[in-house]
Design a protein that fits this description.
The chain is mainly alpha-helical. The longest helix has about 35 residues. It contains five helices and two strands. The chain is about 65% helix and about 5% strand. The protein is elongated, with a radius of gyration of 27 Å.
């Protein structure tokens, strides 16, 4: 077994969650002993290869995408923001007072048509993104799922 590339670095672990035993009353002597044991258990060493793999796993998958795909994702995210704004405008329009029912119906219909056209644009953009990702050989279904919310 080769150990040439096994430089180790300490890794900070998240704080330990309270367990059933932690909620029991303790004497002062056992509190000190258990704290010392806990701090020893929290120290972990990891090889450079493991550290590199951990860093790669924690990176955003969007960072590895080609620039044209990143731009498509940004455009879809802007469409999503526009849809949310249009939905808020529709909600305000529903609460507003109008001189007659015809005016209210026309205003609400206009807002709903705007939302529908933005959603169609988003769906078309997502289909284009899927095609671009397929052509680029990128397989990140999580990105598509996130944009389809």
């Amino acid at each position: 077994m080769k150990l040439e590339n096994t430089i180790t670095e300490p890794v900070k672990l998240p704080p330990r969650q309270a367990s059933f035993d932690d909620t029991k009353p303790k004497t002062e002597a056992t509190d000190v002993d258990s704290d010392a044991e806990q701090s020893e258990d929290d120290n972990v060493t990891i090889s450079m290869a493991g550290l590199k793999k951990l860093k790669e796993e924690s990176e955003d998958p969007k960072d590895k995408l080609p620039s044209h795909i990143k731009e498509m994702i940004k455009a879809i995210e802007r469409l999503i923001e526009m849809i949310e704004a249009a939905e808020e405008a529709l909600a305000k329009a529903k609460k507003a007072d109008y001189p007659d029912d015809d005016t209210k119906r026309d205003v609400l219909e206009m807002h709903q048509n705007q939302i529908n056209s933005l959603e169609f644009a988003r769906n078309d953009a997502i289909n284009g993104l899927m095609e671009a990702m397929k052509e680029a050989g990128v397989s990140e279904p999580g990105i598509i799922i996130e944009l389809m919310r």
